Each structure stands twice: as structure tokens, then as C-alpha cells.
């Protein structure tokens, strides 16, 4: 594995909110086409970590590199990097006043400076990718959660990002809608999209992730391919955590 | 003198002339009042701390003093520092300042009501703060501000009568002139009131049409929740 394959480099990220140390030195490399899944109890900094990568939250220390260029401390150039680092949110955050199509078009027009016809074409292509082409003229309030999340994935895809960050993309959805969103994400992974996913969906982690990072107390506690973390007796903490979730579900 | 002759040959023609001036005052004030109001609200909410403070102070001063005082300063006070405005210009300037300060507060309320996620999502796509405000936040906030803004527009229609105090013969002033000349106060002022009522009614209907036209499909919950 040579260095050229590494698309995203995260080095020693620290972040505190007041007295609470949320991230305490997180580092990892992401290879092109890889899917990394972040798992762990709530409040262990997984979402903050994703936000530190595209600088929606500014880390106290540490650096992020995209394709060899520094994302941290990049000043106004951050808007360039954010085009290259897509993000999908737990609560979708679609632009409420715009149709699905216009949601996808907006940044193409304003940020990429595309012409109207080209942007429309591109937006429709991305909506087709996520199976939402027929809903192009509907507004967010008219969509189910699963549909809205698929539109938000199309919106991120339209910028042709090098990597997409998924921040608990299915946590606001019921199991049926979760499945339709995960299907789209699996398809993206198969097509070679580089993805960082914060999720509690173990099934998705096991079937799609190249690597799982188990986070606890602001650090990566365990890290490796899902099979290894689940089956190798040397790894215990993630299994404990999953055990706790399962027993809670049995209650 | 015959009532009908007074009404149709004296009062109404005078009021119509005054109405034209009132409409001119409103037409010259409202667009700038809205534009400046948006600027002040955005400046206060999203601007550099100095800009934000300036916007806040501006609103505070306008809210805290009578409009009539502002008009007097603009018309009678400014000449002492070498700025002489016509009565019409001084009135329009005063109305713009007053209208924009109140509009700014309605718009600021609407800006605050837009969830953070809208800005976060816009920025995550690489939009600048300004692009996000212009293309994502303001279009939503202005929709929510329509009821407040229309209220302020109705106030403008009515406080435009203060221009009379600067010798602009607008609707109320025209009524006053006829009333004094013919000693028919009740009839004259009642007629003036009816014209204002008509103006406000037209505005109310126009605003409700506008609200329906710009409503975002799927978000109009007024009826169902009103039935709860």
C-alpha cells in the first residue's frame, strides 16, 4: 500500500468544549475507495471528529490532509476543501424552501458556478443514483425521512467529493427507511466511493466496512477489519459495547 | 351647500390629490425600508461585532424615539449643518429609517428561527457564509417575516400622514385643509379614514395572496394545527 492511495490523513486531533475533552488525539489514514465505520457510545466524539475533518468544528490541535494538501488552517480555501469532502447529516438538513432537485442544484450553481442546464442535468443524474429522480419536484416537507436522506446523499454526491462523511445517517429513521438508505450507501461503497460513517448499524459495519474504529472517551480504542474486532479474542471492548446494546434491545 | 356637491366636487378631488402624494411617499419609502431592514437584520445577526453593534444601536435609537421627532430633525434640524431637504425628501428619509428599523426586528426574529442545520449544510457544501445567508437563510426567513413585515407596511401607510407636519399635503393633510376651510370636520376626516381603510384592506388581501404564492408546499400547517 503506497502513500498515493491515501486520500485523507487525520493527525492527532484534539478538541475540548469547555472542560470536556471530547477528542484526545485521534489519528487515522483513509485510502481511496475505503469505507471506515466509527462505532462507540454516545458522547465519545464521533460526530465531533467528522466535523473536525471538514472544519465545521475547528479542532484545538491536530491536522487534516486531503490529497496531500492541508485542510486545517487553510483560511478561505476551506470552501474548496468542503466541496471535496461531502457530508450527510443525521437530520438531513435539506434546504426546506427548495425542491429535491434545487437542493442538489444549489451548490452546483453557486459554488461550482455551473450553468443552469448543466447543473440540472447533473442534479438529475445524482437523484437517479439514489432512486429519487421521480421526486425531483417535491419539497423536503413532502418527503419521508428515508427519501430526504437519499436526496441529501445526492446533494453531497453532486459536488464529486473525494470522500463523504456520514454522521449517523440513519439514526433518525425507522428500520424500513434505514434499510433504503443503507442500500444506497452500500451501492456507493461498491462503486468505490470513499466513506467515513458514524453509525450504530452493526450489520452495515460488518458487511461494508474495510475497517471499524471503535471510539471510547475521545480516542480510538480498537481498530481493525470488522471480522477481527468481532472474533479475535484479543479485542474485547467493542464486543462488550455491542453486547450492552443487544441486551438493552432484548429488554 | 349640498352634501353631494361637497363630497364629490370638493372633498373627493382634494383627497385624491392627497392620496397620490401618500402613494408616492409609500412607494419611495417601502422598497428601501425593506432592503435596509434586511441589511440591518443580517448585519446585526451575522455581521462583525462592530457592524452588529451599529445595527443594534440604530434600531434602539429609532425604536426609542418618536418618528415625529426624527422628521423634525431631518427637516428643521439638518439645514443648520448645511443639509437642506425638501419636505417630501425629509419625510421619505424619515420613513425609510423608521420602517427599516422595525422591519429589521421582524426579519431578525425570522433569522433566529431558522435552524442551525441550514447554515451547517450550506457551509458543508463549500458555500461562503454570505452565499449561505443569501441563498438558504434569507429566502426562508423572509417567508416567515411576511406577517410582521406586512404589519409594518400597514403602519407605514398610516404614519405617512406625519408628512403633513412637514407641510407635505398628503391624504390626511388634504382632508385637514378641506375640513378647516369648510368647517366640516367629521365628514372630511371620516372620508380620510375610509380611504386609509381601503388602502389597508388592499394591502391585507395582497399580502395573503403573496403568502399563498410563496408558501413552501408541505409546510402549511395553519389549518390542521388550528383544529387541534
Automatic annotation (TrEMBL), chain A:
The gene is glnQ. It is a peripheral membrane protein. This is Glutamine transport ATP-binding protein GlnQ. One of its GO terms (cellular component) is plasma membrane. InterPro entries: AAA+_ATPase (IPR003593), ABC_ATPase_HisP-typ (IPR030679), ABC_transporter-like_ATP-bd (IPR003439), ABC_transporter-like_CS (IPR017871), MetN_ABC_transporter-like (IPR050086), P-loop_NTPase (IPR027417). Pfam families: ABC_tran. It comes from the Archaea. Residues 8-242 form the ABC transporter domain. One of its GO terms (molecular function) is ABC-type amino acid transporter activity. The lineage of its organism: Archaea, Methanobacteriati, Methanobacteriota, Stenosarchaea group, Methanomicrobia. Belongs to the ABC transporter superfamily. Keywords: Amino-acid transport, ATP-binding, Cell membrane, Membrane, Nucleotide-binding, Transport. PROSITE patterns: ABC_TRANSPORTER_1 (PS00211), ABC_TRANSPORTER_2 (PS50893). It is found in: Cell membrane. It comes from Methanoculleus chikugoensis. Coiled coil: none annotated. Transmembrane segments: none annotated. PANTHER family: AMINO ACID IMPORT ATP-BINDING PROTEIN, GLUTAMATE_ASPARTATE IMPORT ATP-BINDING PROTEIN GLTL.
TrEMBL record, chain B:
Belongs to the binding-protein-dependent transport system permease family. Gene3D superfamilies: MetI-like. Signal peptide: none annotated. PANTHER family: L-CYSTINE TRANSPORT SYSTEM PERMEASE PROTEIN TCYL, MEMBRANE COMPONENT OF AMINO ACID ABC TRANSPORTER. Keywords: Amino-acid transport, Cell membrane, Membrane, Transmembrane, Transmembrane helix, Transport. Residues 19-207 form the ABC transmembrane type-1 domain. This is Putative amino-acid permease protein YxeN. The lineage of its organism: Archaea, Methanobacteriati, Methanobacteriota, Stenosarchaea group, Methanomicrobia. GO terms for biological process: amino acid transport. GO terms for cellular component: ATP-binding cassette (ABC) transporter complex. InterPro entries: AA_ABC_transptr_permease_3TM, ArtM/GltK/GlnP/TcyL/YhdX-like, MetI-like, MetI-like_sf. The chain crosses the membrane at residues 20-41, 53-75, 81-102, 153-169, 189-210. It is a multi-pass membrane protein.
Amino acid at each position: 500500500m503506497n502513500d498515493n492511495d491515501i486520500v485523507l490523513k487525520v493527525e492527532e486531533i484534539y478538541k475540548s468544549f469547555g472542560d470536556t475533552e471530547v477528542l484526545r488525539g485521534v489519528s487515522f489514514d483513509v485510502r481511496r475507495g475505503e469505507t471506515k465505520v466509527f462505532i462507540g457510545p454516545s458522547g465519545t466524539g464521533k460526530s465531533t471528529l467528522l466535523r473536525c475533518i471538514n472544519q465545521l468544528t475547528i479542532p484545538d490541535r491536530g491536522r487534516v490532509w486531503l490529497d496531500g494538501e492541508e485542510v486545517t488552517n487553510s483560511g478561505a480555501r476551506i470552501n474548496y476543501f468542503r466541496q471535496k469532502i461531502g457530508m450527510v447529516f443525521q437530520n438531513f438538513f435539506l434546504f426546506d424552501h427548495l425542491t429535491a432537485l434545487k437542493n442538489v442544484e444549489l451548490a452546483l450553481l453557486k459554488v461550482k458556478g455551473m450553468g443552469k442546464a448543466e447543473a440540472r442535468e447533473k442534479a438529475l443524474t445524482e437523484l437517479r443514483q439514489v432512486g429519487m429522480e421521480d421526486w425531483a419536484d417535491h419539497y423536503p416537507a413532502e418527503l419521508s425521512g428515508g427519501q430526504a436522506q437519499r436526496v441529501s446523499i445526492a446533494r453531497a454526491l453532486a459536488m464529486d467529493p473525494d470522500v463523504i462523511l456520514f454522521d449517523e445517517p440513519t439514526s433518525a429513521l425507522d428500520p424500513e427507511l434505514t434499510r433504503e438508505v443503507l442500500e444506497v450507501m452500500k451501492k456507493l461503497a461498491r462503486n468505490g466511493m470513499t466513506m467515513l460513517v458514524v453509525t450504530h448499524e452493526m450489520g452495515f459495519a460488518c458487511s461494508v466496512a474495510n475497517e471499524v474504529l471503535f471510539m471510547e472517551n475521545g480516542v480510538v480504542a480498537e481498530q481493525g477489519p470488522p471480522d477481527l474486532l468481532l472474533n479475535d479474542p484479543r479485542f474485547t471492548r467493542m464486543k462488550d459495547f455491542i453486547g450492552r446494546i443487544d441486551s438493552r434491545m432484548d429488554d | 351647500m349640498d352634501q353631494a356637491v361637497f363630497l364629490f366636487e370638493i372633498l373627493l378631488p382634494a383627497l385624491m390629490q392627497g392620496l397620490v402624494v401618500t402613494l408616492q411617499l409609500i412607494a419611495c419609502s417601502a422598497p428601501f425600508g425593506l432592503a435596509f431592514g434586511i441589511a440591518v437584520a443580517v448585519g446585526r445577526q451575522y455581521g462583525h461585532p462592530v457592524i452588529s453593534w451599529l445595527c443594534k444601536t440604530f434600531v434602539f435609537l429609532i425604536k426609542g424615539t418618536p418618528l415625529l421627532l426624527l422628521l423634525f430633525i431631518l427637516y428643521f434640524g439638518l439645514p443648520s449643518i448645511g443639509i437642506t431637504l425638501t419636505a417630501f425628501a425629509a419625510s421619505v428619509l424619515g420613513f425609510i429609517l423608521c420602517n427599516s428599523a422595525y422591519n429589521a426586528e421582524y426579519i431578525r426574529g425570522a433569522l433566529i428561527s431558522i435552524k442551525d442545520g441550514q447554515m451547517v449544510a450550506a457551509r458543508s457544501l463549500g458555500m461562503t457564509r454570505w452565499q449561505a445567508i443569501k441563498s438558504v437563510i434569507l429566502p426562508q426567513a423572509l417567508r416567515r417575516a411576511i406577517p410582521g413585515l406586512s404589519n409594518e407596511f400597514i403602519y407605514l401607510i398610516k404614519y405617512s400622514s406625519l408628512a403633513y407636519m412637514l407641510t407635505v399635503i398628503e391624504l390626511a393633510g388634504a382632508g385637514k385643509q378641506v375640513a378647516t376651510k369648510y368647517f366640516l370636520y367629521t365628514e372630511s376626516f371620516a372620508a380620510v379614514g375610509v380611504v386609509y381603510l381601503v388602502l389597508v384592506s388592499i394591502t391585507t388581501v395582497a399580502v395573503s395572496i403573496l403568502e399563498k404564492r410563496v408558501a413552501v408546499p408541505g409546510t402549511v400547517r395553519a389549518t390542521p394545527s388550528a383544529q387541534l
